[in-house]
Specification:
33% strand; 2 domains; alpha+beta; 3-stranded antiparallel sheet; 4 helices; 29% helix
Length: 162
């Protein structure tokens, strides 16, 4: 099945060609008369416009835009993402102890954190039980269920994990 994407005056007909669009990241053509480059670092936007007329055509203005973007990216590198902290050591699964004042009981549960297909954060909780009554076997069973749920969602393309 062919994917047809028309952009930058180029028609891409398959997924391999669509991957080449990554080299145009941070570059848009807002008005058809030039390319706009926007790079944001630490909340500050660095932006520049490359007119087709001034640079002698679309290809040359795009080349200049890519060159400037790469220069800005090297001058202001992206901050490294901090490692994921987890109470279980498993990405996206946390062990939670909650106290219910009304019943005067402390509960244990495992939560799986993920993003829905539309990007909204969500979680699913696997309840273990009263912390004073549960066994190790109960806890391991809930953890296995949480891991299975997480694995199943990682395999689907409709949910994006975080």
């Amino acid at each position: 099945m062919a994917v047809v994407i028309k952009t930058w005056g180029i028609t891409l007909t398959n997924k391999r060609e669509a991957k080449t669009l990554a080299k145009y990241e941070n570059i848009t053509e807002p008005d058809g008369m030039g390319y706009q480059v926007r790079v944001v670092r630490k909340g500050k936007e660095r932006s520049r416009y490359f007119s087709h007329k001034r640079y002698g055509g679309k290809r040359k203005s795009l080349e200049a835009a890519i060159e400037w973007r790469d220069e800005i990216r090297s001058k202001y590198p992206e901050k490294a993402k901090r490692p994921v902290q987890s109470t279980t050591g498993i990405r996206g699964i946390s062990r939670t102890v909650k106290y219910d004042k009304r019943r005067d009981i402390t509960y244990l549960s495992y939560s799986v954190h993920f993003k829905n297909a539309d990007g909204t954060p969500n979680n699913k909780t696997f309840f273990v039980g009263d912390l004073n009554v549960i066994s190790d076997k109960d806890e391991q069973k809930a953890l296995r269920a949480a891991k299975k749920f997480r694995r199943d969602f990682e395999r689907t393309e409709t949910v994006q994990m975080h």
